[in-house]
Q: What sequence folds into this?
């Protein structure tokens, strides 16, 4: 399934660089999410957007800056990251934030980020 | 306290055999949903199966079934007739209801790495 597309797949950057992760969903969904997946830890929800409005920011450091210009696109802007930020960053979408319990979130392939 | 507990970091199963992956959860909500996802080495999280807290029957989707025991707060995934392509990480996740503020937020466990052998 290619309903959620993330680019780039891999990213290596220095701590002083600025880069952006991109997510695009082709499912007509209204909610989008950023997750961080570190080794041997549960997925951590970072940000939640509903109809382009940020509805959740789970105590994420300001060096991560999300942007949702429309309901199909979600960005994660990165600057002055730390080595512990190296992880797999996953984007997901769902029909809505409310509604039926059984609506799953659909995930992209993720961006594997390495901080030098 | 962890809301989703997966106690098996790794599991091995022979091809064509059935395997059960354990998941226990903790919530004070009466309304909640439980999901299982598969993550191959490529990274994508693939939705497999869903069980609602009020569903009277165990969910089934092809070779996947859920052994839902509400009183014990467990939602184990059963994969029948294992195939080599089933080798992956498997995550249990929960969506809680009104008491936790609602919204389509998922809480994930730490996952189980399944290896299917010939």
A:
């Amino acid at each position: 399934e290619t309903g959620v597309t993330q680019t780039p797949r891999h990213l290596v950057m220095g701590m002083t660089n600025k880069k952006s992760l991109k997510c695009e969903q082709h499912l007509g969904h209204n909610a989008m999410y950023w997750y961080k997946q570190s080794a041997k830890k549960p997925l951590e929800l970072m940000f939640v957007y509903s109809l382009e409005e940020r509805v959740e920011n789970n105590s994420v450091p300001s060096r991560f800056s999300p942007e949702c210009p429309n309901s199909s696109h979600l960005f994660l802007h990165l600057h002055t990251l730390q080595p512990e930020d190296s992880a797999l960053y996953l984007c997901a979408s769902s029909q809505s934030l409310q509604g039926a319990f059984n609506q799953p979130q659909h995930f992209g392939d993720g961006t594997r980020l390495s901080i030098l | 306290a962890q809301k989703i507990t997966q106690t098996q970091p790794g599991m091995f199963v022979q091809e064509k055999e059935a395997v059960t992956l354990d998941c226990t959860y903790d919530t004070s909500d009466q309304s909640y949903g439980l999901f299982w996802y598969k993550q191959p080495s490529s990274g994508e999280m693939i939705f497999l199966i869903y069980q609602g807290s009020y569903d009277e029957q165990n969910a089934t989707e092809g070779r996947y079934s859920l052994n839902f025991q509400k009183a014990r707060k467990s939602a184990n995934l059963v994969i029948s007739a294992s195939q080599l392509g089933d080798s992956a990480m498997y995550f249990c996740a929960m969506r809680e209801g009104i008491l936790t503020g609602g919204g389509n937020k998922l809480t994930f466990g730490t996952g189980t790495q399944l290896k299917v052998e010939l």
Notes: The mean pLDDT of chain B is 92. DSSP finds no helices and twelve strands in chain B. Chain B touches chain A at residues 4, 31-33, 35, 37, 42-47, 50, 52, 91, 95, 97, 102-111 (CB under 8 Å). The longest strand of chain B covers residues 88-96.
